[in-house]
Amino acid sequence: MGEGARGLGRSSPHSPASRYNILMPTADPLSLSYALAQDAQDELAAFRAEFAPLEPGLLYLDGNSLGRMPIRAIQQVRNALVDEWGTQLVRAWGTDWWDAPRRVGEALAPLLGAAPNQVRVADSTSINLYKLADAACAAQATASRRVLLTDALNFPSDLYILQGIAQARDLELRLLPDDSTDPTQTILDALTPEVCLVSLSLVTFKSGYLYDAAAITARAHAVGALVLWDVCHAVGAVDIQLDAWQADLAVGCTYKYLNAGPGAPAFLYVRADLQSRLTSPIQGWWGTSAPFAFDLTYTPAEGINRFLVGSAPILSIKPLEASLEIFQRAGMPRILRKSAAQTAYLIALIDHFLAPLGVEVVTPRSPQRRGSHVSIRHPQAYPLSQALIAEMNLLPDFREPDQIRLAVTPLYTSYADLFEAVQRIAQALRENRAQNYSAERKSIT
Ligand SMILES: *Cc1c(COP(=O)(O)O)cnc(C)c1O
User: How many whole angstroms separate alpha carbon 192 and alpha carbon 355?
Assistant: First the structure.
């Protein structure tokens, strides 16, 4: 990799690429000129400029952990501080703020394939998962239906919460091991009439495996179970069709592919016809039909609002609203096309440049079975990830025990970014940069 290519991180995706357009039909797919040609015809290329610029030369492939900041968010948060809080004071609850969980939930619903009145923005993913999983168990468990089903690919916070619910409700948590080569089939086989709820991450956080949600949902219903999808690693990057799948419940966060910022509120989905059957285990005032009646007893609101708890985090909802406007303009079909093309491209680059250096692709190769990040495995993955961050100006992330995740975030990831990132990883491996870093883990990886 020459210095010219290294400079790519600095330049706009358009300028150098136009020079290479002419090479496009014949460019070797493993060449930089191919990446530049792809960028030149990328229908989403202009959206890159809507995100806060990176330090010169920095490559960011960790948008599945914390998405980049939409520049529009600055103005929205500033307005909320200065014009709303600073000026309107408490009156702002009556104008813009009170309605935010509904308004922003409805803006998010199309990204989930959800018709109106089924999605609300609230709380964290962990808390929403608790509310919906507990409500589902209360409604669905019977003397002979006492199993909560999940697998070891699920996010640990989800597992901990399911463990707590199983304990409190005296149910059995059935945790399938993560050694299956076909996790969808393994779940299908485990869906028996003993199961009251199956709860899975639609895209698994380590390997990026994507379940066949339609098949699992159909099978769950056939045996009398409800399904709860955690779409944290999917929303904004994969095709989600909750209504068409007839999914029962879903939760997800907004700070990963949705770029809403650290600690931004999460969301929940409850299918319309289920809402009156389920009640939240956290009976807060925002979940009642008339919060300002200040009744002394709790009466859940009709519909989806019953799953709200307390005051909405207005300052953190604003960046989400700004970000969703970008998604609306970009359109999920274009984002999905680019994600599929870029993850395929990244896998091809890894196979060619990194496999000879001992790197293995963990993420499924079938586009139907993968999300929008590619995980690679290497025995030195942890010290290597430290070297990439400290010396190679590349930000991926590491997941135990031996994986590095490289996220494709179609709104701002270019083909040249992916090409350059793979070159930097190859260089770090060739020069054994990992040897300078301890295998001892820092507290945040
Ligand atoms: C990121 C992630 C979470 C995070 O939950 P928080 O409550 O926002 O910390 C939960 N589940 C999955 C599957 C995730 O990927």
Answer: 41
Q: Which residues are CB-contacts of 196 (< 8 A; sequence separation ≥ 6)?
A: 136, 137, 140, 141, 142, 145, 146, 147, 148, 171, 224, 225, 226
Q: 40: CA distance to ligand 1 center in Å?
A: 35
Residue 312 scores a pLDDT above 70: yes
What is the rounded average pLDDT of the residues 388-405?
96
Sequential DSSP letters for 109-174: GGGGT--SSSEEE-S-HHHHHHHHHHHHHHHH-BTTB-EEEEETTS-HHHHHHHHHHHHHHT-EEE
Farthest-apart Cα atoms in the chain, separation: 73
Q: In the structure, which protein residues have their CB atom closer than 6 angstroms to any atom of ligand 1?
A: 124-126, 155, 157-158, 201, 205, 230, 232-233, 253, 266
Q: What does the alpha-carbon distance between residue 165 and residue 162 come to, in Å, rounded to a whole number? A: 5
Report which DSSP code applies to 30: T
β-pair partners for 195: 147
Distances in whole angstroms, Cα of residue 209 to Cα of each of 134, 166, 226: 26, 26, 21
pLDDT tens-digit readout, 316-341: 999 999 999 999 999 999 999 999 99
Closest CA to 208 of 340, 333, 109: 340
